[in-house]
UniProtKB/TrEMBL annotation:
Gene3D superfamilies: Ribonuclease Inhibitor. InterPro entries: LRR_dom_sf (IPR032675). The lineage of its organism: Eukaryota, Fungi, Fungi incertae sedis, Mucoromycota, Glomeromycotina. This is F-box domain-containing protein.
Amino acid sequence: MISTLPIDCLNQIFECLEEDKVTLHSCLLVNRLLCRISVEILWRNIREFEKIRTLIACLPNESKDFLLNNGVTSIPISKPPLFNYASFCKVLSIRYLLIEDNEIEILSDNPKNYLITKEILKMFMRQISSLEKMDFSFMEYYYYYYGCYDDFYKNYNFLNFINFPGAKDCLKNLSELKCYSFMNSEFFLQLSKICHNINYLVIIFEETASVGIKDLILILSQNNLESISFSRYNSCNESNFDDIFNYFTLTKHSNTLTKLFLSGISPPSIFTKIIFSNFRILLLYFYPVNIDDILTKFLVNNGKNLEELVLLSDSVNSVIKNSINLAIAKYCPKLKSLYTEFKGIEELIMIFDNCQQLESIRNSCHNSLGGKKLLEIVAKYSPKNFHKLNLHHAKLNSKDLESFFISWKDRVSKRPFSFIFDGDGIVINNKIKKLIRKYKALDVINKFEEDENPEQYINRS
């Protein structure tokens, strides 16, 4: 019966199943129509290494002949594929074209593999009508590949795919780009000529930074760039960022940017002069603790529309200074999500009083404001929409928790509460399990669970 629905309706239904791979795979066997719709979604993002063999089978005969003539003998001989799988790809992650299965092996270990990847990219440029995302990073494998991937980009003329036939049409609507700072300047220059619609840019800065990055950012800053992520590793010179951030003050860039992520980078003094009229999200990770004046001035200029703020220092012993938390309370009235640390009661109460749209807080209880006292303040002072607390290193027992749940139950305006914690502080015994079941049944608790991925904030670039 579902096959009688209009194709547009079916497409919308199946879009909701994008993350449900099991259901999509089961639909492959229903009929040809549902098979095609499922295949288009499954092949949108090539994340599985086994798909590379299928892509090789999809190569045109001229590419297969080229590979065989150059000593690549692992070309599968099979019937033509049922679909043109390459044309369905919308997300191109280079690492999945380079790494074989789960082995720690990249192209530099086998130069002939480079020829295969080159021919696959040539096919992509011709057959993908409009690529949406392109990722050149190896960040999921960073520690394994450190010192390898930069040599790879230097040793192989890999980035010349941008000059392949069809590349201009394939890349003209690219919306997301993730790359390294050391990549060839000519590559960045060509991107700046073709890709004028990138709204999400991620650059991982290594020891060297190509001058072409500035060309790319200058062009993008004149269009619709909405989100920027800069991560700094090794000994990259911070002067590189001074010139880049200067573009924020010179272009209409400041009217479109809504999100900024900086990891391992000290916000430069130019930050005090930047005004983003539609700014929503600021994520600062592993930054030095001596940026209080710069950050405070930035919040003065840009805090009025801020909805999410994450401040994670590079020192496990440091605490966010009181002046920054007071600036948050004073200049960020629309804040919904906050990750910071508190020295004392007053600044937390002030944030609750002034940030009336606040829904969640993530806090580490290393300091004097412990878990029990924090729960008391949350129950008494948090705004009506507040409903989620993520606590690390909070020493809490069943008595502390029940006292909080009773207080939360008695609130005039309340939402079921979500309590996320790490394994260091709360010991889940039978008494606490019984307590959780009781208050879930009363619709006081929505979630009470251990944080399975405490580093999730670090991986959000």
